[in-house]
Design a protein that fits this description.
The complex is a heterodimer of chains A (252) and B (304). With 252 residues, chain A is an alpha/beta fold. Chain A is built from ten helices and seven strands. Chain B has two domains: 155 residues, Rossmann fold (3-Layer(aba) Sandwich); 124 residues, Rossmann fold (3-Layer(aba) Sandwich), CATH 3.40.50.920. Classes of the chains: A alpha/beta (252), B alpha/beta (304).
Chain lengths: 252, 304
């Protein structure tokens, strides 16, 4: 998909692949397993730059075809470079950062009012936490006791132009969530067992407090020459780098 | 007009439990009736307008009908991107209410004044724009906003100028409503607070006909075109920027269809000084005297 479309943001997708895979595999109630199933749990990708990871899951579910993936980024397809709500299975249009979490908060409030039992899992970037609207949403979710909302931070410690430390230092996100009175756990975002356990633990606590997971991740995870190398925020694959990356990923 | 708004909003919520009122910590006194009758449908989102619009989008996706209230300076101006991406792109049924549009908050200054909202939203697809002149037009617009499948914006400006009509207009959505008949060869088209002023000026101009435009999008283009063909010129008056508002809209339609001259009267600068509402209108050249002088001058001169 990334090679076929000659696309950017590969590193952003590789850092969240285990997070979205675990959610689809073991946690999301997908109802009748159609993209717009009534009563489904919502997976809101607020960091729309990681959309290739979600596309890969939608492909596994059979909601996207091989041809869809091959036509990613190309003329006349809905498969745009950032999360887009017109694609069945994607819940929000994001990539302009700071949009997904407020919408997720509204979905969680709607589910609470309807007593539908639906849960909302919102994947956000650590760089995205620069946006003021994120903090507005976090405060709102606490005020309205949205314990059906789980905010999962992809803490890869990079944003577009550098490390989060260099650009806008975030300090401890764990401590910040705790200060906002969230139930928060910090885990290795590439350890599927740890993610499963954290999600099970948090979802068992229906105590009026919103939930957060700070997932320590590696941008470009799984491909040695991409890992923690921020040029892969924007670099496109060549035949040589594609083959080398594929060999590494398939060798794992 | 404000009492009417309070009543019809409350009625809408009583009639449909999916209607929720979201406010960015504004609307003191205006929502007393709503909060008394529908306390469970009132959501104060705090001083956090961007999140409020995202929440409204999420609620609409979950099946609710949110009404998002704020000062026009904040809703839609501060949240234009949320309206575009979160609401309009998905054609969600969210009604936005921008209160105090124009220079209503006169003495408070530039931060609370709003003369660019229509121009901004006209460029965004999938959102209706209404700008009622009196309580009857408000009810006419409100019916369309609630029936509309997608998003809508209610521009709520100066509201105490008195009635223009005698009853709720019975017209298709988008029509211009004749507020004063006339026989002059120049016509006036106005919207919102300036319709009352246009009616006063009509007589001074020897009986120029006046149309009110309560619905700015979608407007009845054929009707604007026919007015553009029937008269020597059109004056457009609005408490909004002369760029991109009703004046721009009328000028575009008339220019594209080969009609008459269109002279726009609206704001062109920020308000420089403190002053009351009447003072600020005069600063922007929207007082009766300045408008009349401008109109008389235009009528006396041939088109260049």
């Amino acid at each position: 998909m990334a090679f076929a479309g000659s696309t950017v943001h590969i590193g952003c997708a590789l850092s969240i692949i285990e997070i979205v895979a675990v959610l689809y595999r073991s946690h999301l109630n997908l109802g009748d397993r159609t993209p717009r199933a009534a009563g489904r749990d919502y997976l809101v990708l607020s960091k729309g730059h990681g959309v290739m990871a979600q596309y890969a899951c939608l492909h596994e579910l059979g909601w996207l075809t091989d041809a869809d993936l091959d036509r990613y980024f190309s003329n006349g397809t809905r498969m745009k470079g950032l999360s887009d709500a017109h694609v069945p299975g994607l819940e929000v249009t994001s990539g302009s950062l700071g949009h997904g979490l407020p919408v997720a908060t509204g979905l969680a409030l709607g589910a609470q009012r309807l007593k539908s039992g639906q849960r909302v899992f919102c994947v956000v970037g650590d760089g995205e936490m620069n946006e003021g609207a994120m903090w507005e949403a976090l405060l709102f979710a606490g005020q309205f006791r949205l314990d059906n909302l789980v905010v999962i931070v992809d803490e890869n410690r990079f944003q577009a132009m550098g490390t989060t430390q260099e650009v806008i230092s975030l300090g401890s996100l764990h401590a910040k969530f705790a200060a906002f009175d969230y139930d928060v756990l910090s885990v290795d975002g590439h350890d599927e067992k740890a993610l499963d356990a954290a999600l099970d633990d948090l979802m068992a606590r229906r105590n009026g407090r919103p939930k957060a997971i700070v997932a320590a991740t590696v941008k470009g995870r799984g491909v040695s020459f991409m890992e923690n190398n921020n040029v892969w925020h924007y670099t496109r694959l060549t035949k040589e780098t594609f083959d080398a990356a594929l060999a590494e990923v398939e060798g794992r | 007009m404000r009492a009417t708004f309070s009543r019809i909003l409350t009625e809408a919520a009583q009639h449909d439990e999916r209607v929720l009122l979201l406010t960015g910590d504004h609307g003191y006194a205006l929502f007393d009736e709503f909060r008394k009758n529908c306390p469970g449908q009132y959501i104060n989102c705090g001083v956090a307008e961007q999140n409020m619009v995202g929440v409204a989008a999420g609620l609409a996706k979950a099946g609710f009908r949110p009404v998002v209230y704020g000062l026009a300076a904040f809703v839609p101006m501060r949240v234009l991107e949320q309206i575009k991406i979160d609401v309009c792109y998905e054609e969600l049924p969210v009604v936005f209410v921008g209160d105090g549009a124009g220079v209503v908050y006169a003495q408070l200054g530039t931060s609370h004044q709003c003369t660019e909202d229509v121009a901004a939203l006209r460029a965004v697809p999938n959102i209706g724009i209404v700008s009622p002149a009196d309580r009857f037009e408000l009810q006419y617009c409100w019916k369309h906003l609630l029936q509309n499948k997608g998003a809508g914006y209610l521009r709520f400006g100066k509201a105490d100028g008195g009635d223009v009509h005698a009853a709720i207009p019975d017209a298709p959505v988008g029509d211009l409503l004749q507020a004063r008949p006339g026989k002059e060869d120049w016509a006036i088209i106005a919207t919102g607070s300036m319709v009352v002023a246009a009616c006063r000026l009509s007589a001074a101009l020897g009986g120029a006909p006046v149309w009110s435009a309560p619905v700015l999008h979608p407007i009845n283009r054929a009707q604007v075109e026919s007015i553009g063909r029937a008269f020597s010129g059109i004056f457009v008056v609005e408490e909004h920027s002369a760029a991109g508002g009703l004046g721009g809209l009328v000028a575009e339609i008339v220019a594209e269809t080969g009609g008459c001259r269109v002279i726009r009267f609206g704001t062109r600068q920020f308000s420089e000084f403190c002053g009351d509402y009447k003072y600020l209108l005069s600063q922007h050249g929207l007082d009766d005297g300045t408008l009349l002088a401008g109109m008389t001058s235009a009528m006396a001169h041939e088109a260049p």
